[in-house]
Amino acid sequence: MSDKRSLRQKYAQILKGETHCDDPRQHNHGDEPICNPSNNPDFVSILNSRLQRRQVLKGSLALAVTSMFAGPAINTLRARPAAASSTLLGFKAVPVSDVDTVVVPEGYTASILVPFGEPITGSYPAYSLDNTGADQGMQMGSHHDGMHFFPIEGESPYAGSSDDGLLVLNHEYVEPRYMHTAALGMALDSDGVPMMGEMRDADQVLKELNGHGVSIVRVRKQANGTWAVEPDARNRRITGLTPMEISGPVRGSDLVKTRYSPDGTRTRGTLNNCAHGVTPWNTYLTAEENWAGYFRNGDVVAGSNQGEVEPNLPREHTRYGVATGVSRYGWELASNGADDYIRFDASTKAASPTQDYRNEPNTFGWVVEIDPFDPTSTPQKRTALGRFAHEGVVFQPPVEGEPVVCYSGDDARFEYVYKYVSAQPYFSATAGGYLLDNGTLYVARFNEDGSGEWIALVFGQNGLTPENGFKSQADVLVNTRTAADFVGATKMDRPEWGAVDPATKQVYFTLTNNTRRTEDQVDAANPRAANEWGHIIRWSEGNNNPTSKTFQWDLFVLAGPEDDSKTLNGQALNEDGKFCCPDGLWFDANSRLWIQTDISESVMNTGDYVQFGNNQMLAADPVTGEVRRFLTGPIGQEITGVITTPDQRTMFINVQHPGATVTADDFAAGSLNSRWPDQSTSMYPRSATVVITKNDGGIIGT
Ligand code: FEO
Ligand code: CA
Ligand code: CA
Ligand code: CA
After folding, report:
1. DSSP classification of residue 196
2. How many other C-beta atoms lie within 10 A of the C-beta of residue 153?
3. The dihedral of CA 57, 96, 274, 150: what is its sign?
4. Strand pairing of 380-382 and 243-247?
5. What is the structure's pLDDT at 39?
6. How confident is the model at residue 36, as a pLDDT?
7. What is the per-residue pLDDT for 302?
8. Distance from Cα 598 to the centre of ligand 1, integer Å
9. According to the model, what pLDDT value does residue 38 have?
10. How much is the pLDDT for 22?
11. What local confidence, expressed as pLDDT, does residue 11 receive?
12. How far apart are CA 86 and CA 229, in angstroms?
């Protein structure tokens, strides 16, 4: 901590300056920075109805929600009243939990697979705290997140073997204190890094970069029913260093030219990979979420007071929260000064952008396509899908001869929900990544009456013109947030995962929480001020056509405790279903909606949050609205990532950041609250995948 403080002092003058965002070192991993300075009202044209509705909200929440579900436009989406318990949910609910283990319903079994550090490729180095940075590049990364099981045949993402496949998963971030022997005895919190004076040990930096990215690992069901890693030429680590192509409209733009790639066509690595996507052509998409804090930009100009300076960053940095002081992990301070590491300092250092890394942050914030079946393939940053804190990507089921449609949320407070529609039609025989290079990106406006509009973010349309500061489509895409501000999109309560109901094509999105929303900022789609608990919104596209420019929306559930929540049938969540901070979301083939929670480690199991216990996973019936708790996780973690094998008889989920709630002092004293999954006093807690099966061999959830 004292080292961090001395670094802070070094940059104190700059830190005094204001950016629009929180300092990335001053908020917890679970708390996204606010960067949205725009004043676009949530519903410019309907102030009157908004004021009326606020009167309603001053009454009971129940009344307000009833009125929301009662609008004429919403009636088409209304659920049938639940007369009886859902037939879709066949398991017995588990209670909330505060113990250091995974709990699944009676009749189910959970086991561990591929924890952080598990060797998967190269020389398969065994896991140990003193593994080198190079070792880490051959092992599972940390902080498992979005994930897909690709059946080994490699033909379809949802059909084929249920016993053998490539498990592909994201590693969102790392906790250096649980990675390095150098951290032993230091007072480090979950964000802390071991310093060498004012530098960072170069091999630790390499290890942290290699702890990020994506793992592709063949996993196979063994004769005894357990799952294990299978050595395979396709096993691969993609990390914060892997060479990647910049694809789509931003390729070659001046905004992405760097010393590494003077022609603006390439970059190194993918970072803070949160949720994921699966294309209809059997490739994996990884989403770059809170990448901005990994960079710093110390550029300054003279301030208004003599002798003072203030930050001087371009909008493509400020609007996303690039740090002005120290970056999240201080990689730019690596002791060997290697080019791979100094690029995290985006300050202007040379005469031209092709001689320094002022544009390096512009090569992050994208959706990246990876072909897990071709270990020689170069990952592609698909810039047509926009640049923001991408939580994940979710597709509508493809239709032969129709455009491909997918959705992505920008997870920060008051950010937006986006849709992409390909310009070219989908044909299964020829579909490929080109469909993600040429299309239209839209941003959502949720109207008060339950209608909604998709507003195109296209250069020259909707005021995105040179007079208003937009120079090209590449400029619009690099500055997606600014473009969305300009066209008046609806500011949401932190959009996390999306999911599409295969039976209805309805799209669901989690809005995890937003305690900064004030009474004045409340709107129909984000109906609670100081939204601690979060909610789930859903919509149907106009005429049920995914390419429609309009939609009809309603709220699926207002999460929270029994006295402050609401489900589709008008009732509150009960003891078996109460949850808060929805994050992961996935529909299985039977339209069972799986909901995963991410209560921030800064509040988990404290105050009002004690009643929810550890983070959990629930299943919901999209017709009746019933929600039932399926699983609870160990201490300090969040549950994220969920997929089943095609036969739905094996489910994989991820447990991310167990032990993140250990305080700096307790860490220094070796007093940890979680040792999951190894449960050994000589082992730190580790993120891991959990395999869930039903003891009778049945479909998960029935
Ligand atoms: Fe990485 Fe928004 O969760
Ligand atoms: Ca998180
Ligand atoms: Ca998430
Ligand atoms: Ca989250």
Report:
1. B
2. 13
3. negative
4. parallel
5. 73
6. 85
7. 96
8. 9
9. 81
10. 54
11. 33
12. 37
- Residues in the chain with pLDDT < 70? 1-34, 40-84
Amino acid (1-letter code) at residue 667: F
Report pTM.
Answer: 0.93
Number of helical (H) and strand (E) elements in the chain, helices listed first: 12, 32
pLDDT tens digits, residue range 492-522? 999 999 999 999 999 999 999 999 999 999 9
Distance between alpha carbon 261 and the CA centroid of its chain, in Å?
Answer: 27
Nearest atom within ligand 1 for CA of residue 389: 2
Q: Whose CA is nearest to atom 1 of ligand 1?
A: 274
State if residue 31 touches ligand 1 by the CB under 6 angstroms criterion.
no
- Two structure tokens written together for 141: 């990364």
Alpha-helix runs per DSSP H in 212-299 = none
Instruction: Answer yes or no: is the C-beta of 391 below 6 A from any ligand 1 atom.
Output: yes
User: Which residue type sits at 3?
Assistant: D
Q: How far is CA 675 from the centre of its chain?
A: 25
Q: How many Å apart are CA 256 and CA 247, to the nearest integer? A: 11
- Counting from 1 in the atom list of ligand 1, the atom nearest the Cα of 411 is 2
Residue 479 C-alpha to ligand 4 middle, in angstroms? Answer: 23
What's the gap in Å between 420 CA and the centre of ligand 4?
23
The answer to whether 527 and 68 have CB atoms below 8 angstroms apart is yes
**How far is Cα 283 from Cα 300, in angstroms, rounded to an integer?**
42
Could you tell me if 444 and 520 are in contact, meaning their C-beta atoms sit under 8 angstroms apart? no
Give the ligand 1 atom nearest the CA of 32. Answer: 2
User: How far is it, in rounded angstroms, from Cα 344 to Cα 554?
Assistant: 42
Tell me if 289 CB under 6 Å of ligand 1: yes
* 30 alpha carbon, closest ligand: 2
Q: Which ligand is nearest to the CA of 389?
A: 1
Q: How many CB atoms neighbour CB 464 within 10 A?
A: 24
Q: Which of 279, 556, 512, 301 is nearest to 396 (CA)?
A: 279
Nearest to 487 by CA among 528, 457, 448: 457
**Nearest ligand 1 atom, CA 598:** 3
262: CA distance to ligand 4 center in Å? 36
The full length of the chain comes to 702
Residue that the structure tokens 């929303």 belong to: 517
Tokens standing for 331? 């990689």
| pLDDT confidence of residue 79 | 47
Q: Using alpha carbons only, what angle is made at residue 350 by residues 384 and 272, rounded to the nearest 5 degrees?
A: 40
175 lines ligand 1 (CB under 6 A): no
Residue pair 330/193 in contact (Cβ under 8 Å)? The answer is: yes
Residue 496 Cβ < 6 Å to ligand 1: yes
pLDDT at 475: 98
Centre of ligand 2 to C-alpha 640, Å, is 9
Residue with tokens 């379809």: 156
CA–CA gap between residue 363 and residue 265 (Å, rounded): 9
Residue 361, phi then psi, degrees to nearest 5: -60, -25
Measured in whole angstroms, the distance separating CA 439 from the mean position of its chain's CA atoms is: 23
Q: Could you give the residue ranges of the DSSP H alpha helices within 638-678?
A: 664-668
Backbone phi, psi, residue 532, to 5°: -75, -30
Ligand 1 mean position, distance from CA 29 (Å): 9
How far is the centre of ligand 4, averaged over its atoms, from the C-alpha of 28 (Å)?
11
Residues with Cβ–ion distance below 5 A, ligand 2: 30, 598
- Residue 33's pLDDT is 63
